[in-house]
């Protein structure tokens, strides 16, 4: 049985691996997405993260594709009560609309609800900060949505520590709903930005943390170890200069050494389990385009790293 963790003070109980919906309707077509979603729930997962903007970056797409696929799956499988739906607003859609203005949030949530074929969203997140507005503006819109029963809790993503603190203080002062979670970039390779200011802030206020890029764009799976490996996939070209350096190789070596102590495990599982073991972390988001890929990721929820394992990984990636 998978041990659930509460997300901040939201009352939402999440399994410690969150399924990333960025690939649905993009690199995974509807049929493939349904297979992954089925396997995720069957494997003990319960939280699915998406955004209105997924996959506006793909040629011929305008955003909303991922939510639409998830909505069809929820409807066809009758699974709405079994899963938590996490979606976002704020990044630029295919039509150029973006931001966290009140009216825009009111319109966007209706579009997301329609695509998801549901009447409520479990966690509605500000996908990125809108620094043209006071921090209270989106929260005033979210307060209306929570009151109307359309949203259960709210979260923030890609916020600076200063603006997140300001938002949390404003919630207290004005009696507005507070961000219960943060979605930052965080993994064994990219640690400093989150650990320096955001992690202590999340712990101080009791926020849940559901990081994205937990496998550093696939680098932490161990598939890319030499220049030759980079030619194996489309992602390889972007991974090379960023991760394949002395520190990156040191991290891969420490992953291998921890894997050797846990027969049957893999570098990807250890990298995700390391995130799950960090103080205040609720669970990483990871995406898959096949049930086979997903099965490997799901095993990370049952991999218990020792204090020595965590210490070794911490030192190698420091």
From TrEMBL:
Keywords recorded for this protein, A-Z: Oxidoreductase
Transmembrane segments: none
One Gene Ontology cellular component: cytosol
CDD domains: AKR_AKR9C1 (cd19081)
Key word Transmembrane helix present: no
Cross-referenced InterPro entries: AKR, AKR_Detox_Biosynth, NAD(P)_OxRdtase_dom_sf, NADP_OxRdtase_dom
UniProt GO molecular function: oxidoreductase activity
NADP-dependent oxidoreductase domain span: 16-316
Protein name: Aldo/keto reductase
Native organism: Hymenobacter rigui
